[in-house]
């Protein structure tokens, strides 16, 4: 079975943290031939800032090109991997997902920010500066700087774009579908609803998804629902029934069967297993 590895930081099964961890992009990528294979973090939230060189990033199966000035936002449980040029430079900031969520709404999915990145970079620099040189009221300062970083990310996220050149019509439809799934996966799983909103037939939407995203439209929706279910099971105290209801499943038994199929174990078993980590 080809499982996607889950790491604390890439290549590390455990890594102690206070508020955050930061390092330059080449510090870790050079050790792996400038390639970070697809993986995910159960509890970590990452922000990558590319200042030099170029990169190719894979986010949950969608591949994008990065240029200097790009910011990549990777919430917990998002599968991500990178191929960097050897002249790459920049910073990777790693936080606990729980700290991010404690300060406001979390980020539902990964994002690539090309415009408005300067304010994000400045907020990252200030947060790292406080972490490296703690002073009086360090905890309050860290919370303040982290809040400002999250505000900067949310403001810039509205300008998030895929940096893979000018998209053709199929890529534009695929991007519109992914964006719609992000906003509507709790309300509907019907392919016809998404296809109608985009202006294509369900059959054509499936063809586009397989061509551009490498999976059927239903698979994309189910993966997004599963990702949210995993997050809720890990980071919330909601019951399995409540999580199912929040995700649009009126029948708790059906929701349990669905999650069991997607995760290979029941929601309750998954929560117990992850709670041992």
From TrEMBL:
Superkingdom field: Bacteria
Gene3D superfamilies assigned to the protein according to its UniProt record, in alphabetical order: Homeodomain-like (1.10.10.60), Jelly Rolls (2.60.120.10)
Pfam families in alphabetical order: AraC_binding, HTH_18
Record GO terms (molecular function): DNA-binding transcription factor activity; sequence-specific DNA binding
Domain HTH araC/xylS-type: 175-273
Keywords: DNA-binding, Transcription, Transcription regulation
Transmembrane among keywords: no
Keyword Transcription listed: yes
Coiled-coil ranges per UniProt: none
Descriptive protein name: HTH araC/xylS-type domain-containing protein
Organism: Devosia elaeis
């Amino acid at each position: 079975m080809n499982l996607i590895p889950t790491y604390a930081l890439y290549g590390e099964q455990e890594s102690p943290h206070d508020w955050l961890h930061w390092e330059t992009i080449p510090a870790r990528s050079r050790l792996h031939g400038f390639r970070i294979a697809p993986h995910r973090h159960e509890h970590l939230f990452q922000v990558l800032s590319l200042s030099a060189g170029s990169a190719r990033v894979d986010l949950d199966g969608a591949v994008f090109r990065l240029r200097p000035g790009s910011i990549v936002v990777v919430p917990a449980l998002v599968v991500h991997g990178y191929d960097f040029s050897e002249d790459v430079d920049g910073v990777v900031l790693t936080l606990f997902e729980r700290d991010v969520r404690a300060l406001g709404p979390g980020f539902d999915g990964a994002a690539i920010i090309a415009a408005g990145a300067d304010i994000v970079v400045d907020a990252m620099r200030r947060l790292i500066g406080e972490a490296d040189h703690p002073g009086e009221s360090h905890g309050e300062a860290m919370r303040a700087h982290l809040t400002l970083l999250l505000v900067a990310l949310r403001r810039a996220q509205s300008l998030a774009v895929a940096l893979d050149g000018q998209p053709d019509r199929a890529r534009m439809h695929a991007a519109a579908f992914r964006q719609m799934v992000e906003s509507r996966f709790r309300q509907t799983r019907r392919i016809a609803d998404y296809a109608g909103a985009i202006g294509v037939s369900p059959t054509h939407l499936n063809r586009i998804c397989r061509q551009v995203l490498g999976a059927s439209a239903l698979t994309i929706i189910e993966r997004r629902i599963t990702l949210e279910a995993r997050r809720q099971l890990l980071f919330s105290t909601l019951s399995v029934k409540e999580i199912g209801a929040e995700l649009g499943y009126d029948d708790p038994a059906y929701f349990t069967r669905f999650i069991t199929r997607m995760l290979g174990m029941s929601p309750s078993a998954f929560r117990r297993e992850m709670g041992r980590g």
